[in-house]
Write a structure and sequence with these properties.
Distance between the termini: 37 Å
CATH topology: Lambda Exonuclease, Chain A
Largest sheet: 6 strands, mixed
CATH architecture: Alpha-Beta Complex
Shape: globular
Oligomer: single chain
Number of strands: 6
Number of helices: 6
CATH class: Alpha Beta
Structural class: alpha/beta
Radius of gyration: 17 Å
């Protein structure tokens, strides 16, 4: 794989933070296990949130005005990443990405970096700064604000660079995933060095 010509799906950033082997199996080995029951559930949640957001003001985000765009396709010229953001709020002076996470009980690092990636892409597309974004999580859509700063931007750049290095080397990376993480991973059977008896 020539990583210099490769564009990384933003969704794999969250997967990388869960376990770096997931994007390896997906992109390098071309494995795409079937039977992911949460996918339709997540799609239904996104549709419901899109409908609800049409009726809501932007006050829950601390914004007075702005256009709310759903399912926004984004591609970078700077970072080699691309994806479809759940939603982007475009105001006169900033862009604010939104991500919906039905399955999440709390906000995790991978979700924050995924949101940051969409924000960086939106910043490039709309020519407006990305200073904040929002993760709506849980069945009630709790709102968690993420502030973009130099530290988060550097973390995003570092993760993208590490992923591209894995794809270039085409070697299965080490994993520090816990037994609990492995138990919910559809790629477990492809990891020869992980515990399979997780009862």
């Amino acid at each position: 794989m020539d990583s210099s010509l490769y564009s990384l799906p933003v969704s794999l950033i969250r997967q990388y933070c869960f376990c770096p082997r997931i994007p390896f199996f997906n992109e390098v080995r071309g494995l795409n296990p079937a039977g992911r029951p949460w996918l339709k559930q997540g799609t239904d949640y996104h549709s419901r949130q899109a409908m609800l957001n049409r009726r809501r003001s932007l006050q829950r985000y601390g914004l007075q005005q702005g256009a709310l765009e759903h399912n926004v396709s984004l591609k970078g010229n700077g970072l080699p990443i691309h994806g479809v953001a759940d939603a982007i709020i475009v105001t006169d002076n900033e862009v604010c990405p939104l991500e919906f996470k039905l399955e999440a009980a709390s906000v995790q690092r991978g979700q924050i970096l995924q949101l940051a990636a969409y924000g960086v892409l939106a910043e490039e597309r709309y020519g407006k700064p990305f200073r904040q974004g929002f993760i709506l999580y849980g069945s009630r859509g709790k709102t968690h604000r993420i502030q973009m700063d130099d530290r988060l931007r550097q973390q995003l750049n570092s993760v993208v660079e590490s992923m591209l290095e894995i794809f270039q080397a085409q070697l299965m990376p080490a994993s520090s995933a816990s037994a609990h993480q492995c138990a919910q991973c559809e790629y477990l059977n492809f990891c020869a060095d992980r515990e399979t008896d997780l009862e």
